[in-house]
Amino acid sequence: KPSKQIDLAVLLAMCEVENYAVCSTLQSMELSTLKPFPPGEPEKFALFLDQVFGIQ
User: Average pLDDT for consecutive 10-residue bins of the chain (56 residues)?
Assistant: First the structure.
């Protein structure tokens, strides 16, 4: 069964912010096609935690 790390790598590759590769394909990766990873939104995560723990 694939690991969660592989699942995440495949999803990020589909979003074109990461390349997913195995040893045999590392030399042929085209890095110039990658898009910048979008900035995080920590306030959304903080709001989620506040809701989970009932913090006002």
Answer: 82 84 81 86 95 91
